[in-house]
Design goal:
The protein is α+β, with helices and mostly antiparallel strands. The protein has helices spanning about 40-45, 65-70, 75-80, 135-145, 185-190, 215-220, 310-320, and strands at about 10, 15-20, 30-35, 35, 80-85, 95-100, 110-115, 120-130, 165-170, 240-245, 260-270, 275-285, 290-300. It has a single domain (about 10-320), classed as Thiol Ester Dehydrase, Chain A (Roll), CATH 3.10.129.10. The strands form 2 sheets. An 11-stranded antiparallel beta sheet has the order 1-2-6-7-8-5-10-13-12-11-9, with helices on both faces. A two-stranded antiparallel ribbon has the order 3-4.
Length: about 325
């Protein structure tokens, strides 16, 4: 007899479902890119104003999987998704809880949010299932960005629509995914906040063998980012700000070859950062149907970019 995907408890109030308090782990303390440590290193994080290294955002996606399956069943694992904006960093040792609004009949997109024990909001967005769901808040936010062209230093030589050729990739149980992800799938499953027998090697599932956790789709498609053609000319410290992962044609599987196509679809800026928005589409080798996709807003801290203010002044002088 096949086991259920999740054994996690789901609590219920009048308006929402919620999962247990969880204590996620930071597995990126040794992450490097551009020849330097990332914001997930304590010392680097403190330079950027954090108390310590934040846990990578998509780690939190796993806590919503039992809630989504509670509402939509196993269908969510094959054609579901999450679309969120990150609001506050979570440090190792802090506990967080996932919430999901209760649906009306037939709803295919529902509000989700996560809080710390002190009530601090960690993220907010929506969960969805099927292709018929309404545009997500993240999609609407991106459309608004396309109406503006922010003044840019870090990404001044970047233009919308830039694309990199497809690259072959797979995610196995015992292979790290380069310097960006110095841990294996097996190590992740040891520490994942919501374990499932369907993730384990040799598992029997409705799709035959084991499936990848939704958070590991981020690892699969983003581990190639160091070769993107729109990277800054100088090293920067970056942070995930907005992220959407959607499954369109069945779950993705470990130890399976895929092709990833990455396209720059948005540019934005805030007081402290400049951002590029990238859509990653996953195909079978040579295929034309998108199996899964991810939209990711990666923000680069202006203070981490050498000579930012000097280059900005030169731009202003040239414009004058």
């Amino acid at each position: 007899m096949m086991t259920k995907a999740f054994a996690s408890t789901v609590d219920e109030t009048e308006d929402a479902f919620s999962g247990p308090w969880r204590d996620p782990r930071n597995l990126l303390s040794e992450q490097t890119y551009g020849g330097h440590a990332s914001v997930h290193d304590d010392a680097t994080a403190r330079q950027m104003g954090f108390a310590a290294a934040p846990i990578e955002g998509p780690t939190h996606f796993s806590q919503f999987a039992p809630l989504c399956c509670h509402v939509w069943g196993d269908r969510w694992l094959s054609e579901g998704g999450l679309s969120v904006s990150y609001k506050a960093a979570v440090l190792e040792g802090e506990k967080v809880k996932a919430f999901m609004a209760k649906p009306a009949a037939g709803e295919t997109q529902l509000a989700v949010w996560m809080t710390k024990e002190d009530g601090t909001e960690v993220l907010r967005g929506t969960a969805m299932v099927g292709s018929e769901s309404e545009p997500t808040p993240l999609e609407q936010k991106l459309r608004g960005l396309l109406l503006a062209d922010p003044r840019r230093v870090i990404f001044r030589n970047v233009s919308l629509g830039m694309q990199r050729s497809r690259v072959r990739a797979s995610l196995g149980y015992d292979r790290t995914m380069g310097a960006l992800y110095p841990f294996t799938l097996r190590e992740k499953l040891t520490h994942i906040t919501e374990p499932s027998p369907w993730y384990e090697q040799g598992a029997q599932t409705p799709w035959g063998g084991p499936i990848l956790p939704i958070e590991m789709i981020s690892v699969l498609v983003h581990h190639v980012a160091e070769s993107d053609p729109w990277l800054p000319e100088k090293p920067t410290v970056d942070l995930f700000v907005d992220q959407e992962i959607r499954l369109r044609r069945g779950p993705l599987l470990p130890d399976t070859d895929y092709e990833i196509e990455r396209t720059l679809i948005g540019l934005s800026a805030s007081k402290r950062t400049e951002s590029c928005w990238v859509r990653s589409d996953v195909f079978l080798p040579g295929g034309t149907e998108v199996l899964a996709s991810m939209v990711l807003n990666v923000a680069s801290f202006k203070d981490s970019y050498p000579g930012y203010q000097e280059e900005l002044a030169q731009m202003d002088a040239g414009a004058g």
